[in-house]
Design brief:
There is one protein chain. By secondary structure, this protein is of the alpha/beta class. The protein is built from 21 helices and eleven strands. Strands 2-3-4-1-5 form a five-stranded parallel β-sheet, sandwiched between helices. It has a four-stranded antiparallel β-sheet with strand order 9-10-8-11, with helices on both faces. The radius of gyration is 44 Å and the shape is elongated.
């Protein structure tokens, strides 16, 4: 799989608008935890300090992101920012050449550059000189930059170096006893800051922190030591591993043809019904009839005409089973299949074999095609069997057929599904509560579970201000439990500290009601 296809699979699996852990993501806002105070400190020192400013931290500590934020947050009308990379051009000539080119200076010398800085100062513009990968600067480049930072009485640029801690030793060796630079060391994130950083990255890509469990967040923080660049890599690797694991679980090895279990059960049920039907259908055999009466074994469809043009059916009382093709004509009714030996009526109202009122052999004439079958036998003037036997047999089965137990057995399974609307009503009520809260309020998210029964049990056990709502994550329902409604984030943080230790173990965190309402709207 190519890198492009792998990225597409990753984004599609988690329904992301872009890779949330890429080095540069669209619309990413500067993370306001520990880095925002550092950004303010840099602006303050640039205005009031005469020293060269050094920002240090290991690889992946966020130095480049901080440099980007510093450039983006300056006033473009009053500050001209010159960004220089020491990678591949770490000597004095390489650095000064980049600075002179950015300031439109023909001579790449410190004196010529300082004159241009003074000229820009007269027009109301300051110069910020920012150097990335400053640990790769050699001694000559550091000396040139210290000279630029010292400037002249008329003006000087504000020089910022962003590099690893090894840079400090080189600067100390050049400075000697003089105070020529000021160092700001970046600090790693705490675990809660790691959670907030992950949440901000995921929300920017269209998802939420729910993609990670509390244990996964702890593992990511521990593996990355709290450095944002490493957090990005570890978090992305964790998501890719989970994606591969979920896809591998779906793909099972094919060992020949295997029929699904539900199909096997359905076929078994059909076979059982067919065997029961064959067993319960009364047998038929040839039996002598009244003299002159046509005797034929009953075969469906009833297409063989008698002498008067109407098909005749004979019901014999012997115990031999009859092979009746079940095509185009119903053979028996439900009561006959459900209770063997019960007296039932056939499709034309004639008592079927097994009734005490039925003589061994009864011959009747079927009604013409299109006629509606009636409970009374069709007048049979031409057939020889005595009509009194048919008339006598008719009233006997009528009261026996009606009290068959089949109707009484059917209502039982119909009443069971009545419990489901209760669950739906609870979920709807919770959703309505979230919709009635001010969007600027905060709730405390406790946990998420794929089982609504577990969510209901947790809410019932805790009681009070615990509620849950349903959302859809990766095509599957997720039931998110929240606590309370608070007018500010500070109030929500205070409420978290007062929660029981068992609840706090799940690392609850505050989120806005607006984000919940948005998820509910998407779920609908």
């Amino acid at each position: 799989m190519t890198s492009l296809h792998a990225d597409e699979a990753f984004l599609g699996h988690y329904q992301l608008s872009h890779d949330p852990f890429a080095p540069r993501v669209p619309g990413f806002k500067f993370f306001p935890a520990q880095r925002k105070p550092v950004l303010g400190q840099l602006h303050h020192l640039a205005r009031y300090s005469q020293l060269l400013l050094v920002v240090t931290g290991p690889l992946g500590s966020g130095k480049t992101l901080l440099r980007q934020a510093l450039v983006a947050s300056t006033n473009k009308q009053s500050v001209q920012s010159v960004v220089v990379s020491a990678r591949g051009a770490g000597d004095a000539a390489g650095v000064l050449r980049q600075v002179a080119q950015a300031l439109d200076v023909a001579n790449a010398e410190p004196t010529a550059i300082l004159k241009q800085v003074v000229q820009l100062g007269l027009t109301g513009q300051e110069v910020y000189l920012l150097v990335d990968d400053a640990e790769q600067l050699d001694e000559s480049a550091l000396e040139a930059l210290l000279a630029l930072a010292a400037g002249t009485p008329e003006g000087r640029p504000h020089v910022f170096l962003f590099g690893e801690a090894s840079l400090i030793a080189d600067l100390e060796q050049l400075s000697g006893e003089q105070e020529l630079f000021h160092v700001i060391e970046l600090q790693p994130y705490e675990e809660e800051e790691t959670r907030e950083y992950l949440a901000q990255r995921l929300e920017g890509a269209g998802q939420g922190i729910e993609l990670f469990s509390a244990q996964q967040i702890s593992d990511i923080h521990e593996s990355s030591d709290g450095w944002p660049g490493t957090i990005n890599q570890v978090a992305r690797d964790a998501m890719i591993e989970a994606m591969i694991a979920s896809r591998s679980a779906v793909k099972r090895p094919k060992m020949g043809f295997t029929m699904p279990k539900k199909h096997v059960l359905a076929i078994s049920a059909v076979v059982v019904v067919a065997v029961a039907a064959a067993w319960l259908i009364p047998g038929r055999s040839k039996a002598p009839t009244a003299p002159g009466a046509p005797t034929e074994q009953a075969q469906l469809p009833l297409g063989k005409p008698t002498t008067n043009g109407a098909p005749a059916v004979e019901f014999a009382g012997s115990g031999q089973p009859t092979n009746l093709p079940m095509v185009g004509q119903p053979v028996m009714r439900g009561p006959l299949a459900e209770e063997a030996g019960a007296i039932s009526e056939g499709d034309d109202g004639v008592p079927v074999e097994g009734s005490s009122a039925t003589p061994p052999t009864v011959t009747t004439v079927a009604p013409p095609p299109g006629a509606t079958a009636s409970p009374a036998p069709v007048p049979a003037a031409k057939p020889t069997p005595a009509p009194t036997q048919v008339a006598t047999a008719k009233p006997t089965p009528a009261p026996v057929v009606k009290p068959t137990p089949a109707p009484a057995a059917k209502p039982a399974p119909v009443a069971k599904p009545a419990e489901k609307p209760v669950t739906v009503a609870k979920a709807a009520a919770g959703s309505g509560w979230y919709g009635s809260q001010p969007a600027k309020n905060y709730v405390v998210q406790i946990l998420g579970t794929s089982s609504e029964a577990n969510a209901q049990a947790f809410v019932k056990e805790q009681g009070g201000e615990y509620r849950y709502f349903k959302k859809v994550l990766n095509g599957k329902p997720l039931y998110v439990i929240t606590y309370g409604s608070f007018p500010s984030r500070a109030a929500a943080d205070s409420a978290i500290k007062a929660l029981p230790a068992k609840v706090q173990a799940g690392k609850p965190w505050p989120r806005t009601v607006a984000s919940v309402q948005q998820e509910l709207a998407t779920t609908r």
